Amino acid sequence: MKRKMLVIVSLFLFAFLFNACKSNSTSPQTTNSPGSSYFPNSDGTYYKYSVVRTDSNGTQQSGTRSATYNGTTTYGSTTYQNEIDTITFGSFTTTSTSLFLKNNNGVYFAIDTSGLSQTIPDSLLQYIQIDAQLTAFQFPFQDGGSWPVFNLSLKLGAITFNLVKVVAYYKGIEQIPLNLTTGTVTKSAAKVQYILTLSIPNLSNPFAPATTSNFTAYAWLVDNIGVVQMQGNGTILDAFSGGGINFSDTTSTVSQSLISYNVK
Fold it and tell me: Which H or E run includes 248?
């Protein structure tokens, strides 16, 4: 049993990405619910951000990230919109596709767990409990409001280990400057805080308290523009910007600031 727990915990730290297979699709249903204008999602909408990433060794990289909404994909039984992300650091460029759904309740990103079944035996999959979607934003924003973003747990008999938990908190409105290519403007932005709790069980004594680590990140959204700034823990923010869920360096930090956009 100890070995099974060790294998699963290790896999959790490296195995999950937001890549999904393409298939025939139709247009998703969109709404104009309260708060939905904080996340415009019309096809062809485009954003470009300046990006600064610092890893656990203090090595800093500067570059850009471009995000475009283009078409739809049916994953499972749900139709999602495609977010095409291109990240450039120097001469190195990566492009990836994330799948998101916006409805009257919020914005959700699909989570692909197909790689998990390819990595561990079917006999172990029964122990895994993972959310099918990541709730990036929940509308309408409410003072003092919070919502569960993502949860990944390990269930062994009557014992459940919450290995990964992310919770979001709405922190109100702030005035922030946008250093756009067309000039600097100040906008009222809704601020969202994300707290990721990573818990590793005591493998020698499952009933002992787990070792926990907390990580924090923030996102700012402007009405009728969208996400204009993100700062904080890279593991959290990569999940919203084409990098997938990656726990290989949980101490990395990221700063993304909007420099140009075209909302359709």
Answer: none
Per residue, what are the HEC states of 6-56?
A: HHHHHHHCCCCECCCCCCCCCCCCCCCCCCHHHCCCCCCCEEEEEEEEECC
Q: How far apart are CA 63 and CA 197, in angstroms?
A: 28
Give the type of residue at 4.
K
- SS3 assignment for 82-122: EEEEEEEECCEEEEEEEEEEECCCEEEEECECHHHHHHCCH
Q: Where are the domains of the chain?
A: 2-262
User: Who wins on pLDDT, 213 or 147?
Assistant: 147
Q: Are strands 146-156 and 106-110 parallel, antiparallel or unpaired?
A: unpaired
CA distances to 134, 150, 214, 219 from 131, in Å: 7, 6, 19, 22
CA pair distance 162, 242, nearest whole angstrom: 25
**Ramachandran angles phi, psi of 40, nearest 5°:** -60, 135
C-alpha distances out from residue 56 to 16, 53, 233, 254, Å: 21, 10, 11, 11
Tens of pLDDT, residue by residue over 65-119, are 999 999 999 988 899 999 999 999 999 999 989 999 999 899 999 876 655 555 5
Rounded to the nearest 5 degrees, what angle is found at the Cα of 158, between the Cα atoms of 153 and 162? 20
Tell me how many degrees the CA angle 227-25-108 measures, rounded to the nearest 5: 30
pLDDT beyond 60 at 151: yes
Query: Token pair of 171, please?
Result: 């922190």
Name residues whose C-beta falls within 8 Å of residue 208's C-beta, 6 or more positions apart in sequence: 202
Question: How open is the CA angle 52-13-16, to the nearest 5 degrees?
Answer: 80
